[in-house]
């Protein structure tokens, strides 16, 4: 009897172990599936983000086209051309008179700064921003002028040193996420003489608190100019700000003085250093390098001549150039005079311009060599061999860069020689990624610190975070798809020889990639986008069944609607350049001239009479001007499932 009891006891632990293994294997598989779904959602976000950046970079070709050929421009085109040629800073007044024009009323109850700034002002500003107060435009302008004053004296690359007892903290992209910046300061301490920081570009855009983030960084820099270092990123660029939200944020928060703030800020950007070198061993730059990156040249070029990536240096025949001027009434006139050499001297050479583009826009990849960055449209992809050769040439050990969102907030590649750090947590959606920063001390391995600024994403279970990400990712992907509906249907029908409304998954995936040019795993995504029958064929029209573009004018052809929606961001940037007073209005003639130039360069075929009819219809008060922002908002995407408060029903099949 004793032996029988012993045998029973031996079998029970055995069953428990087997059950535990079954549960463990199930959980591992479940978690692996969740992580795969998270990976696909992130791939959608990133692919669309890079496609938008590619469109932004391609605008430089359009502007180059106009600038190179402006001598042939008609009178109605000269307004746009002149706005592109002139610097927004030509009428900038001296600091004293400029700031004095903006008075702080006694009724203002926001934060007040005392110049010269001290540590107390950092505290005052942080507390005010925690309370969601807005810093008065007078102080914003003071901070910008003070920042420019110090930046002008700095070299292109800031050299800093560390020691075993003096560490330095490196932060990546913040993109207007004040919550992340406040969390970094809470966890890591405020800037001080004993707590140095490097902020590696992309302080603004996309986030809703870009101006507050920028003010905290600039005020901290003014208090500790030797201990807080700021590098320029690809978003410290007034043309990038037009697309990605910072311009609109400033104009919304500073309705009276937003234009002045943007003008001063445009010049501040140009004086930001383009890199930092730590202990003569570690290079901190925003993007990356190329096989032609020349540190010696980058040290000595005049960085303030880099106004924007979208204005490449233009080659002008001085004998044929047209001098554009304004008459007393403010109208653009063309004289036969040649362009002065002064305007040309304000440019970088094409080679210098490309050097900075590579520094701000490039990304590392595992493949050897250096090849065009086809995802972003600017800079290059550089491989481990390029990194090794570059570091060896300039006697460096490591490159630390930012520019790319990473799920863990950081990434190490190229045999540990390239480190990416990204400090904006939940960048795409709540739960999409952690933020991170790096602490470095002399001759010590870097230490990585991760966090999430949004408490909700920390507390939510992983499956809920993944579902929210999927819902948002599929939503923005559907918007990209509907903007190319006509082209996609044409591509599908070319492969649907039997006119059955169905094609194979392979044919569908090829058509999607060919038309949308998004680097996505279309076959894997197909069950989440279209209906597939038991034979594995795709009902290709089902991809459009739950989303469409709403338009107020039913007479407009769908192709026109799709085209306007597809190019809405590019058109809005050009509109904002024409709309120099930020009134939100341009004339119908300006709109017509803008569209003709744009469509001819992009080879977009739309009947001009339809556009004229559309513009005149939008001119409700018949004053000859249209609100272009409202014009673009006329065409917006409606999702059939918007009424669902949670994504669970829609995406239950993702589980």
Largest sheet: 6 strands, mixed
Low-confidence stretches are 87-91, 316-344, 643-655
Per DSSP E runs of 2 or more residues, the count of β-strands stands at: 23
Portion in strands = 5-15%
Residues in helix, %? 40-55%
Which overall shape is indicated by the principal axes computed on the Cα atoms? globular
Q: Please report the number of helical segments.
A: 24
N/C terminus separation: 50 Å
CATH topology of the largest domain, what is it called?
A: Purple Acid Phosphatase, chain A, domain 2
Family: Belongs to the PPP phosphatase family.
Catalytic activity: O-phospho-L-seryl-[protein] + H2O = L-seryl-[protein] + phosphate; O-phospho-L-threonyl-[protein] + H2O = L-threonyl-[protein] + phosphate
EC number: 3.1.3.16
Keywords: Calcium, Hydrolase, Magnesium, Manganese, Metal-binding, Protein phosphatase, Repeat
Describe it.
This protein is α/β, with parallel strands linked by helices. It has 3 domains: 87-313 and 348-452, 4-Layer Sandwich (Purple Acid Phosphatase, chain A, domain 2), CATH 3.60.21; 462-546 and 641-654, EF-hand (Recoverin, domain 1, Orthogonal Bundle), CATH 1.10.238; 548-639, EF-hand (Recoverin, domain 1, Orthogonal Bundle), CATH 1.10.238.10. Helices cover 46% and strands 13% of the residues. It has 24 helices and 23 strands. The strands form 7 sheets. A 6-stranded mixed beta sheet has the order 1-5-6-12-14-13. A hairpin with a 4-residue loop joins strand 13 (410-413) and strand 14 (418-421). Helix 1 packs parallel to helix 16, helix 17 packs antiparallel against helix 18 and helix 22 (588-602) packs antiparallel against helix 23. The protein is globular. The two termini are 50 Å apart.
